[in-house]
Amino acid sequence: MSDLNFSRCKLPPFEHQKIGVQALINHPFFLLADEMGAGKTKQVIDAAQFLYCQQVIDRVVVIAPASVRAVWCDPELGELVKHLWDGLPVLVTEFHTKTKQWMTAPNDPRLKWVITNYEFIRNSHLGTLLNIVGPKTLLVLDESTSIKNPRAAQTKACIRLRQLCGRVVLLNGTPIANHPGDMFAQGAIMYPHILSCKSYFMFRARYAVMGGYQQKVIIGWQNLDDLQQRFKPYVLRRLKKDCLDLPEALAPVTLTVPLTKSTWDVYKAMRDHMVAWLTKDSVTIAQQAVVKSLRLAQITSGFVGGVEHDDHNGFTDSDPPVLLPAVPTEISREKLDFLLSWHRERLEEDPDLKLLVWVRFRSELMRLMSQFENGNGSSTLRIGSIYGGQKKADRETALRLLDPRTAPSNPVLLAGTYGTGSLGINLSACHTVVNLSYDFSYWKFLQSAARVDRPGQTHAVGPEGQKTIDHQIVKARRAKEDIAQWTTSAWVRALTEE
User: Fold this and answer.
1) What is the rounded CA–CA span in Å between residue 220 and residue 225?
2) What is the CA radius of gyration of the chain?
3) How far apart are CA 434 and CA 457, in angstroms?
4) At what angle do helices 200-207 and 224-231 cross, to 10 degrees?
5) In the prediction, which pLDDT does 27 show?
6) Which of 346, 363, 377 is nearest to 456 (CA)?
7) Measured between alpha carbons, how far apart are the two ends of the chain, in Å?
8) Which label site among 12, 93, 188, 435 has the fewest CB atoms less than 10 Å from its CB?
9) How far is CA 262 from CA 296, 303, 321, 323, 364, in A?
């Protein structure tokens, strides 16, 4: 690192980031797997500029999920404009339906950045990139679990690009989102000899434990020490708690919200119905359990319906069906009323409170926003929301509320749904985070929590303190469990605990 002049960096790097930059320079293929918030994007931008000055690369192609593309290339708030060195000429191209460009100086030669997303290069648009990459191209695959499926079109597109690019960096704070099988395609794209497996079937034969019908179902994993040793020279992962140069994160606090007796009666009836289904002799599919359990989570948020209104799957014709409306219908608002009261108290303590609220259900988000739009809180409160399918301009306006470079001095409430608002964005102007309801994915929880390191959590209990699905989700998160992978017995045990 003595040869690297970090004084050129617009933002001085932390010590752990200097180590990461050096690793990216030393290795032509590498996985930077630092925990979210440790500065992976800054490290790869700084490393690319050093490599350009050393005449190793002349172009960087960044492929990211669609929701993260603007996080890189926005000319006002993007990561590039934040970390590009003064005096280094660059040309930034956002490669999408409407190609956009901006530059720091008209000089040529210059470091060329091309930013696109996985979905855009699946088919006909790939050819354009194949024509411009070469031995002096650095390929950056952001949120690399997007290429975990070796059969997916976007994975195959990235493989073709990688074959032409001289260097590749994978960025991911959670490289194993589901199970060790996620690492096959990522390793193959980095460098095939890391795994020495020509196909996923060879990888599965070495590391998976097969069972179930005709031994075709993966029931466990083995030889993981070997897998770890193969990746070890080409992977760097640091947790924020181990980066002593970063501020310590605050521990989460659980806020308990009692349900009314009428809501509890609805919840208990649905819960008992699900337990009866789980204990049937018929085979229970894990994904069915996840869908059905969403109803329980929905009830604790004050709604029924809209998840799956025909519940005959897993029952015989003699079993009574559960008839629910086809669209979400409000039945209660215990959590919402608690949040409104809690928010008013926090505003009295801090008139400039910056609050981020995560929710699982779109109907819950819309009700929450409607309440604040109708005047809950101070008259100066700025509000915004982020969710799937909204207009790009509306999303960007909302994100500016908690970006540290654009956040207003007024109090702010920003609410979003998991997944659509949790990847790559910078909301570090926020003071406090509330998880009003939960996505079952542990990966999405980690991603959303990483936007701000001050999470709080609410969970609903019965009128006499009985445990609900909310309690089980919080418990699973603290144990780092993925609820989507629970067995039937795990579901029954969780649902019957009070």
Assistant:
1) 14
2) 24
3) 5
4) 130
5) 96
6) 346
7) 56
8) 12
9) 14, 13, 21, 18, 19
- In three-state form (DSSP H/G/I as H, E/B as E, the rest C), the secondary structure along the chain is CCCCCHHHCCCCCCHHHHHHHHHHHHCCEEEECCCCCCCHHHHHHHHHHHHHHCCCCCEEEEEECHHHHHHHHCCCCCHHHHHCCCCCCEEEEECCCCCEEEECCCCCCCEEEEEEEHHHHCCCCHHHHHCCCCCCEEEEEECHHHHCCCCCHHHHHHHHHHHHCCEEEEECCCCCCCCHHHHHHHHHHHCHHHCCCCCHHHHHHHHEEEECHHHCEEEEECCHHHHHHHHHHHEECCCHHHCCCCCCCCCCEEEEEECCHHHHHHHHHHHHHHHHHHCCCCCCCHHHHHHHHHHHHHHHCCEECCCCCCCCCCCCCCCCCCCCCCCCEECCCHHHHHHHHHHHHHHHHCCCCEEEEEECCHHHHHHHHHHHHCCCCCCCCEEEEECCCCCHHHHHHHHHCCCCCCCCCCCEEEEEECCCCCCCCCCCCCCEEEECCCCCCHHHHHHHHCCCCCEEEEEEECCCCCCCHHHHHHHHHHCCCCHHHCCHHHHHHHHCCC
Domains of the chain: 6-242 (3.40.50.10810), 249-498 (3.40.50.300)
302-328 tens-digit pLDDT: 888 876 543 333 333 333 444 566 688
Nearest to 117 by CA among 92, 149, 85, 141: 141
Write out the two tokens for 424. 């790559």
Q: Identity (one letter) of the amino acid at 44?
A: V
Which range scores top for mean pLDDT: 251-255, 284-288, 337-341, 491-495? Answer: 337-341
For residue 493, give both structure tokens.
Answer: 């045990």
What is the rounded distance in angstroms from the CA atom of residue 290 to the CA atom of residue 107? 55
**Over 50: is that where the pLDDT of 454 sits?**
no
Rounded CA-CA distance 481/441 in Å is: 9
